[in-house]
Amino acid sequence: MAFTAADVKALREITGCGMMDCKKALTETNGDKDKAIEFLREKGLATAEKKSGRVAADGIVYADVTDGIGVLLEVNSETDFVAKNADFQQFVSDVATQIRTTSPSDVDTLLNEKFVNGDETISAMLVNKIATIGENITVRRFERYDGVVETYIHGGGKIGVMAAFTLADASKADAAEFKEFAHDIAMQVAASNPAYLDRDSVPADVVEKETEILTAQAMNEGKPQNIAEKMVAGRINKYFKEICLVDQPFIKDGDMTVSAYTKSVSDKIGTEIKIDKFARFEKGEGIEKKQDNFAEEIASMVK
Question: Where does the Translation elongation factor EFTs/EF1B dimerisation domain start and stop, copy by copy (predicted)?
Answer without folding.
Answer: 70-285
